[in-house]
Amino acid sequence: MSRFNTKTVKALLTSPVRSTGRTVRNPQGGPGRPRDARSELFLLAVANFVTQDTFYEGGADRDDRFAALVRALAVEDPEWTAGLLGWLRGEGNMRTASLVGAAEYVKARLDAGVTHGPTGRSVVDSVLRRPDEPGELLGYWTATYGRAVPKPVKRGIADAVRRLYGEKSLLKYDTATKGYRFGDILNLVHAAPDPAKPWQGELFRYALDRRHHPDTAEVPGTLRTLAAHRELMALPVAERRAVVTAPDGAARLAAAGMTWEALAGWLRGPLDKAAWEAVIPSMGAMALVRNLRNFDGAGVSDEVAAGVAAKIADPREVERSRQFPFRYLAAYQHAPSLRWSYPLERALGHSLGNVPALPGRSLILVDRSGSMWAPLSARSQLNRADAAAVFGTALALRAENADLVEFGTSSAAVRHCAGESVLKILGRFGDLGGTDTTAAVRRHYRSHDRVLIVTDEQAAHSRHGGPTEQIPAYVPVYTWNLAGHRTGHGASGTANRHVFGGLSDAAFRMVQLLESGRAADWPWLK
Q: Can you give the residue ranges of the TROVE domain (predicted)?
């Protein structure tokens, strides 16, 4: 009789975030499962805005833990660490954490005297994706380790500025508020212009000249955007409003690289209807999303608003902007006009393109406990509780048959039906106090085909055991960690117990792999 080679045989599927097998106490007093160093760093990195406190961990302690993990793994496992940092700035879209990580990668390898694995130069280059980021990385390095900048940092930055520096980037980011101006960076790293960009030599010379001789620096005629900008800046203030209201005003502002942030200063007054309508055509999708309230306040016409709506809901623009899904929730909550509701709903849907349509019956548990309500960052009014609700609701709406549950000290089903608006359903979630995850699982699990828990994993103690222990071993449990704390609420990395993390929808790809019968790996190794 065949014992193993049967039609129902299933491969043992694994995922990369793994617990160590030990048990400790988490800050709630419940059992916590520590993870191996790679898993701990990954979950922290994808949720770490740097210097930001969480409910259970101060910003400084969190940053120290992040830096220590990067430094250790940069020496022990440089290929994996370099892959993480490049992915983190790209698909992971975590800007500051990746810059800090790259600096710590270089520092650790220099201190240890190791040369195997990806170079510090290549890692630094891989995390610099925006023209202001070379200055950001230098600012972190010098504030942390002093003004002596090592060659790997200099060379990585030199590689990046050849990709990133252009006329518009100089206008937008090379400002007097920056500690490191473009000219300072060029002097420090000795960056030569890209031979494939003949105009870049003139740009670099001008950036140096305007840094050291701002009153006499002349814009080369080959740099047309800068020349057009200087022409606008030379206009008397009394004549500037006429540029905005002229038929070619929008085109002239765009040709001069005039950003919406700079326009008010140039006009010497607030942006009114005419000013917004002139600059809107040259604004990017996320700049539009952030200014919907301002458009309404200025009385932007319905015709212009229709163009704004079309752009922010365009799937190509959503993909290009690479914003977290909860950014659209923030815009929805703060834009007063209903004319933005449907475009924001569509944009949110596009940003959740990786959410799988799960077959069968799914139990989706969304953590609404007190620890989830801290702001994601000092500059954000959004919190992990609402981010969790966005992801959980999107899963429920796409699933064939889903029970959507919110939990904290208590738990309750959240009403939803196919075709409903994600943004409207979010209004049905509440604030539920503590974190009795085990009670929520025991109350709502009814032989579902899978369980998904969106949480910070800091569950309270239960006499019944941990949350994942309440579910039969043959049923897959996916925990989505949105905070990156040190311990988890259950074992992971073994068959049918999986953890992933982050604030974007990219992690859903792991669910899709596992559901299709394939083992999931780190996302940069896919």
A: 24-360
Report the predicted TM-score, pTM, of the whole model to 2 decimal places: 0.87
Tens of pLDDT along 62-82? 889 999 999 999 999 999 999
Contact 416, 349 (CB under 8 A): no
- Are 491 and 497 contacting, i.e. CB atoms less than 8 angstroms apart? yes
| Dist CA 376 CA 383 (whole Å) | 5
Residue 414 near residue 438 (C-beta atoms within 8 A): no
Q: Which domains does the chain have, with CATH numbers?
A: 24-33+352-525 (3.40.50.410), 47-91+94-219 (no CATH), 235-282 (no CATH), 287-350 (no CATH)
Q: d(Cα 238, Cα 335) in Å, to the nearest integer?
A: 33
pLDDT digits (tens, 9 = 90+) for 312-335: 999 999 999 888 888 898 899 888
Q: Which residues, in sequence order, are bridge partners of residue 429? A: none
Residues whose CB falls within 8 Å of the CB of residue 36, separated by 6 or more in sequence, listed in order: 18, 19, 20
Q: CA 390, CA 451: separation in Å to the nearest integer? A: 17
Q: Could you give the count of Cα atoms lying within 13 Å of 137 in the half-sphere of its Cβ?
A: 38
The least confident of 56-65, 196-205, 327-336, 434-443 is 56-65
